[in-house]
Amino acid sequence: MNKELVVSTVEDNVQIALLEDGKLMELHQQSVDLNFAVGDMYLGKVKKLAPSLNAAFVDIGYSKDAFLHYHDLGPHVRSLISYTNLVSSEKFKSANLKSFRKEEMIQKDGTMSEVLKPGDPIVIQITKEPIHSKGPRITSEISIAGRFLILAPFSDKVSVSQKIKNKAERDRLVALVESIKPEGFGIIIRTVAEGKKVAELHADMNYLMNKWQQVFKNIQKRKAPAKLLSEMDRASSILRDNFNEDFVKISVDDEVFAREMKEYLDVIAPEKSNLIKVVPDSDIPLFEKVGIERQIKQSFGKNVTIPQSKGAYLVIEHTEALHVIDVNSGNITRNSNNQEESALNVNKVAATEIARQLRLRDMGGIIVVDFIDMTNNDNKRKLYEHFKEEMQKDRAKHKILPPSKFGLIQITRQRVRPELNIKTVEENPNALQKEVEAPILIIERIEQVLKNIIENKGKNVKEISLHVHPFVGAYLTKGFPSIRQKWYMKYKRWIKIVPRESYKYLQFNFLNKNNTLHNESN
After folding, report:
1. pTM of this prediction?
2. CB-based contacts of 205, cutoff 8 Å, min separation 6
3. Residue 297 phi/psi, 5° resolution?
4. What is the domain count for the chain?
5. Are residue 77 and residue 208 in the same domain, yes or no?
6. Which residues lie below 8 Å from residue 492, measured CB to CB, with a gap of 6+?
7. Residue 145 in domain
8. What is the DSSP letter of 245?
9. Which residue ranges does the record assign to the S1 motif domain (predicted)?
10. Which of 8, 111, 203, 328 is deepest in the core (most CB within 10 A)?
């Protein structure tokens, strides 16, 4: 699998696309001056307690107070509070925790009033960005993520990612980290650390300790509410969490971003820093130049065509409480001799696309998927296992339940940022009060219909004519080879193009000697 990262700056926004084998898998949008991002560390002040919720509201400088639940305090919160107070008053003058005396850990089932009171300063980290009318969600169980390791102050525990299965490798990594770990800090060993040598782990440890040193200095000189440490920009954080040998190219249209990413690559993989290519500024935006804009139009919206499915598609609906995804087979199962086998095949392809859609849109909360009905329990199990395997590529925490009696699969997925919602319909030039599918997709839609006609009715159809708006007809026949010529080479059928001045811009019909094969009017 070849991975590519494309970073484009448009005015005050940064767009980041992660491609896998040329296919858009993740899309992120970030304001250049974005505050309160996941991972940011702040010195906050407790505003008030909420005993009924066993929580506190903390002022971190946002328009709405951040929400801190007791279960998000972390067991070492008393040590963190003590350290913060001592550093702020200059009674403790070191980022090193070797000589720091830890406080007693809090109880798992305690109450917030036993730990905090209004006015207390506390170091917190953002776990969920502000969404709609809600303020940020925060934790005081702070950590700093690196490429291979995660640093956890005030904990002495060394743990290993559960995705590293080999016991000998797990033991090796723990032994190496124990030998280089500073006293007073815990370490979580990430999955990408598997097989790494001590020098690479040690370099990452030094990087994390430099970050903690920055936190220490900011606690010394700043008053609440204040930012102590910024999470790295989204592009670099994607590299941190995804970068491996599969990356073949990183395209950036901004010199500043390119320099920042190169500096980070020089730390985690200096031999790969030449992957970053600065694309010269031009009249055409980078996303449009490399074909990402077209993929965005195809991938967002209520109806999503399932690639390689010969006509199947998803219908994605958003409600106040949950997301609903319906899998439609089109005309596939009706033309199949074995509908159960066909349903399984379509469902598996749909599951792959749904897993991609959840990552792409960053959909969170409860998601209910209505797959095509199957009666065979073994096929239901195969679909469930396939879906779980596809979802393993998703870094967001999630849980998938087996199919219910009604054939529904339920998913819960962590959401830490506002869901990405891109409008793909556009104003209809012939009816100002009506919206239509993005015109950029019309050619793909026409070819999909043509493909279905030839595959399902090919032997019985001798002449096929396509009636379209004159503008669309001209586009299909221009150039060499034209789109019509490409269809001829692909499907071995010559399609007659008939311009129709009475047609709406996105309207088209496929006819066979006056018999309608397909009628689509927008």
Report:
1. 0.67
2. 146, 149, 151, 177, 180, 181, 182, 187
3. -60, -35
4. 4
5. yes
6. none
7. yes
8. T
9. 37-141
10. 8
